[in-house]
Automatic annotation (TrEMBL):
UniProt entry tagged with the keyword ATP-binding: yes
Cofactor(s) essential for the protein: Mn(2+); Mg(2+)
Reaction it catalyzes: 2 D-alanine + ATP = D-alanyl-D-alanine + ADP + phosphate + H(+)
Name used for this protein in its record: D-alanine--D-alanine ligase
Pathway connected to this protein: Cell wall biogenesis; peptidoglycan biosynthesis
Top class in the EC scheme: ligase
Similarity-based family: Belongs to the D-alanine--D-alanine ligase family.
Length: 342
């Protein structure tokens, strides 16, 4: 079990909790931010609530814009963030966990939860992540990178294939294609979310996720593995798609039933990726577990952060309750060790 007895902070800490964002994960990010705010102990943390709406305006806690124009609302938000001790950007997807907000905090000189600029940008880019994984000897699905021009006339050697945007989250724009007749529509859906798209072979295997937490002393903690069970996945007929991620139909098994060798391989891969990608704070690594070993699917540097999300559930199973996990993340951000401006 994890020791959750931490020394008292020297004073009440002012935290900017940011939700929303200008992407398809806006609503999920709002839920994460609301959950974080509600779980922070008001005796320890003073919360400054900020939201980025779909049009890019920065909003106050009451939902009203900080200023009449988008540019002025951003300037006002920077001022509020700069007055905080630490920022907790619970913003998923592009213009959030891709390094965009990390760059803002770096320029403002404010410590923050989550990956730095480099780590966020690399991990959000699924193609770049595949290249890093290959250098580490970690398998990924065979596939190719296309754009609107090169996608025309694409004919995969075999089906099914998975079509997905290079930089998007919550499976938005992701499609499983069984026949050539379905390919153009899937490509169009993916290209609506990103100008670059991956077309990958469908991997048959158990879906197993691991989370890595960086603590204030710099040590890395790997939470218990989580297995996602989705109807039809084993028969190559289904994906863990956007609907199943939020409709409650998927079953999470924590800890995942794994052989010792399987668990060791997954843990080693997750730790190697965390370091090589330049991750920080916390990250979730999604794998397919095949008879030949792990196959990396993707990396999330700001995974869902409600109390019912996968990462909090993993660490809760290990003896780190949700409020304590948030406390660990904020302490890690505040520590001198993590402020290396990556």
């Amino acid at each position: 079990m994890i020791d959750t007895q931490l020394s008292p902070l020297p004073r009440r800490i002012r935290v900017a909790v940011i939700g929303g964002g200008q992407n398809s994960e806006h609503e999920v990010s709002l839920a994460s931010a609301a959950s974080v705010r509600a779980a922070l102990d008001p005796a320890v943390f003073e919360v400054q609530s900020l939201t980025v709406d779909r049009d890019g305006y920065w909003l106050r806690a009451d939902g009203q814009p900080l200023a009449a124009t988008r540019a002025r609302s951003f300037a006002a938000a920077v001022g509020l963030i700069a007055d905080c001790d630490v920022a907790f950007p619970a913003v998923h997807g592009p213009r959030g966990e891709d390094g965009s907000l990390a760059a803002l905090f770096e320029l403002a000189g404010v410590p923050y939860v989550g990956a730095g600029v480099r780590g966020g940008a690399l991990a959000m880019d699924k193609w770049a992540t595949k290249l890093v994984a290959a250098e580490l000897g970690i398998r990924t699905a065979a596939g190719r990178l296309v754009d609107a021009g090169t996608a025309a006339g694409l004919r995969p050697d075999r089906f099914p294939v998975v079509v997905k945007p290079v930089a998007a989250g919550s499976s938005h724009g992701v499609g499983l294609v069984h026949r050539i007749e379905e390919l153009d529509g899937a490509l169009a859906d993916a290209l609506a979310h990103d100008h670059r798209v991956l077309v990958e072979e469908f991997v048959t295997g158990r879906e197993v996720d691991l989370a890595v937490l960086e603590r204030a002393d710099g040590s890395l903690l790997v939470g218990p593995a989580l297995e996602i069970v989705v109807a039809g996945a084993a028969e190559r007929t289904a994906l863990f798609d956007t609907a199943q991620k939020y409709d409650g139909s998927a079953v999470f098994r924590i800890p995942a039933p794994l052989a010792d060798a399987e668990e060791k391989a997954l843990r080693e891969a997750a730790l190697a990726l965390f370091t090589a990608l330049g991750c920080r704070s916390v990250a979730r690594f999604d794998f397919f577990l095949t008879p030949e070993g792990p196959v990396l699917n993707e990396v999330n540097t700001m995974p869902g952060m409600t109390a019912q999300s996968q990462v909090p559930k993993m660490f809760e199973q290990a003896g780190l309750p949700y409020p304590a996990l948030l406390d660990q993340l904020l302490r890690s951000a505040l520590s001198d060790r993590t402020q290396d401006h990556r």
